[in-house]
Amino acid sequence: MSSESGGSAVARANRVVVKVGTSTLTYENGRLNLRRIETLVRVLSDLKNSGREIILVTSGAIGVGTGQLGLKERPRDTAGKQAAAAVGQCELMYSYDKQFSTYGHVTAQVLLTRDVIEDGRRKEHVVNTLSRLLEYGAIPIVNENDTVAVEEIEFGDNDTLSALVAVLAEADALVMLTDIDGLYTADPRSHADARLIPVAEAIDDTLRAAASGAGSSRGTGGMITKLNAAEIAVRAGIPTVIMNGANPRRLYDLFDGEPIGTLFPARSAAR
């Protein structure tokens, strides 16, 4: 698939999964970046008004809870992370629900753990619920159920979750919003000569080496988890874009067909 046709496929996408990370949603202290969330919600609401179906996969519960509780750093132990998530998820959903309702849209909270998706019958219930929510015109807001998740049943990062949700929902496109412009030839924060990769036709060892490195102190992922998520999605025939979430209005440019971030064209034989 050419970059042009890949970009066109994203522009034509009707059912879209948008994943937003903790570093995009919050300030360094863990508090919600309200201006950015308001802009993101306004853009997603407008895209929905245009006729698209939107599923939002959001991180941030633990990060927001850390800020709400006044903790100096993100908890490292399971009980601490679960407690922070319980506090943060309330604040996160309250903010989303309040903002989306301003534009006349109904939100629905969907919390998942890996064991749900790996069990055939329970996975079917997830698929049916997402389908019915979209049929009703709601915006599903999906997060990992961090309050009960332990190592054996956690996804570990919401990049993977977003790709799996895109597959379950039979989405037409997956867009991952992060804190840099896309996938570079090396980490641009430590390599001045790093170049943005506008189209990644194949995910190979060279790309994996370029994507290595940890994520932010507020999140769990990094570029490598986004690369792994993109691979899951494109194998299922879903074109994927990694782009900077600092200015959510750039989503308009993306769906107008402009080259934004890094595009991973779908593998045509997958679907």
Structure description:
- The chain has 271 residues and is α/β, with parallel strands linked by helices.
- The chain contains eleven helices and seven strands.
- The chain has helices at residues 3-12, 22-25, 34-49, 61-68, 78-102, 114-118, 120-135, 158-168, 205-211, 223-235, 250-255; strands at 15-20, 53-58, 107-112, 139-144, 173-178, 240-244, 262-264.
- A seven-stranded mixed beta sheet has the order 3-4-2-1-5-6-7, with helices on both faces.
- Helix 4 (61-68) crosses helix 5 (78-102).
- The model is unreliable at 214-221 (pLDDT under 50).
Helix content: 40-55%
Computed Rg: 17 Å
Largest sheet: 7 strands, mixed
The run of helices and strands is HEHHEHHEHHEHEHHEHE
Overall pLDDT: 89
For the secondary structure, the number of strands is 7
Number of helical elements: 11
First-last Cα distance: 13 Å
How are the strands ordered across the major sheet? 3-4-2-1-5-6-7
The residue ranges in which pLDDT falls below 50 over 5 or more consecutive positions are: 214-221
What would you call the structural class?
A: alpha/beta
Shape call: globular
Note the beta-strand portion.
5-15%
